[in-house]
Amino acid sequence: MRPRKATSRATVLAITSGKGGVGKTNVTINVAIAMARLGLRVGVLDADFGLGSVDVLLGIARGAHVGHVVAGEKQLHDVVVRGPHGISIIPASSGLQSMTSLSGVQRDRLLAALDLACRELDFLLIDTAAGISDNVMDMLALAERVVLVTSLEPSAIVDAYATVKVLTAASPATEIGIVVNRVRTAEDATVAFRQLEMATLRFLRRSVKFYGFVNEDAALRDAVLIQRAVVEEAPQGDATRCFRLL
């Protein structure tokens, strides 16, 4: 991370999903790299603390991870690794059940570390775990905006609604934007968004915003297999265009 004035603070975005497997982490990674290519200083916190995957999807070897920070064993600068286009990645652990529920002391250490990180970045993207666990809600509470990733699957839309419901109860003023992933057409994405929007307006008396969509793209699947971001592997592809728009 490059030094910057302490008076400047990063904008914090949390990328989340009610249902696992909808492509939330891919959205986080590719949007982060697309932002960095615009000259922005971007950090990514892998907040799926017990089952991190950001480093795996990018083929980045990590040593220490955020678990060492919350345990008080290392400082943030000891665990940050550099990703494509200079994004700063704070990797999570993998297979540590103890990280799935942070104690009060662990949360305080994490918040202190993120406060330092935000002084050196323009944007901090938090890639949460799926679902509505305490860890997830704690991470969403840090964000100025929440990006909720869903898909066309009915179960994904239902789980997205559940996430909106819980977040609304905890933080009604937080802006929630919807990204519909893996769609064939813009019209498909609009239909999925309208279903979710009608439910939130009717039952929660709150609105959600349509941030955009990501087209189904074979290049995205290929990029995952070779552990690269699709915005780098297929810069002219459909998915890359969508990530740039986001």
Explain this structure to me?
- The protein is α/β, with parallel strands linked by helices and 246 residues long.
- Strand 3 and strand 4 form a beta hairpin.
- The N terminus is likely disordered.
Strand order of the largest sheet: 3-4-2-5-1-6-7-8
Strand content: 15-25%
Which bin fits the share of residues in helices?
A: 40-55%
Determine Rg (CA atoms, Å). Answer: 17 Å
Distance between the termini: 24 Å
Largest sheet: 8 strands, mixed
Please state the overall shape, judged from the principal axes of the Cα atoms.
globular
Please work out how many helical segments DSSP would assign: 11
Oligomer: single chain
- Low-confidence regions: 1-7
Class per helix and strand makeup: alpha/beta
Report the average pLDDT across residues.
Answer: 92
The secondary-structure element order is EHEHHHEEHEHEHEHEHHH
Count of distinct strands? 8
Q: How are the elements arranged and paired?
A:
Blueprint: E1 11-16, H1 24-36, E2 42-47, H2 54-57, H3 66-70, H4 76-79, E3 81-82, E4 88-90, H5 104-117, E5 123-128, H6 134-141, E6 145-150, H7 154-170, E7 175-183, H8 186-204, E8 209-215, H9 218-225, H10 230-233, H11 238-245
Parallel strand pairs: 1-5, 1-6, 2-4, 2-5, 6-7, 7-8
Antiparallel strand pairs: 3-4
Helix pairs in contact: 7-8
